[in-house]
Fold:
Amino acid sequence: MQLKPGKGLGELTFGMMPDTVVAKLGKPDKTFVADDAEDEVIYQYNELRLMLTFYKHENDRLGYIRTSNPAITYGGQPIIDQPITAVLEGSMKGIKKWRSEKYDFFDTYLNEKSWIVLNVEYERIHDIEIGVPVDDDDVYIWL
Structure:
């Protein structure tokens, strides 16, 4: 599945409705409300290692994707389990202004403009989070 910053992942595009996603991927293995945001419904697909977040306050649109699927690519190159420096200097070198944060057991690399988060363990990308971008007024930019 091709990572498409600002747009989505593979056939999934930000703004999709739950019924459309189910028609493409089938019924999720698990559906739940986020612990920290009761207006977010998450669909979990175990085999795809994929979680999709739908925003109730935005008419149930798909607004956030998290995945650790090893088939994810960007610029034709794999992302998951790849060295962070190789990805940032390789297929993602065109994405500028990464902000990194260090934690005890992992690091994150965030590009706010494209709303991509690369979660890193052992200097390798463990999973990716992408969200619908926002404008300067923090309003979602739907496709």
Notes: The two ends are 19 Å apart (CA to CA). The helical segments are 18-25, 84-89.
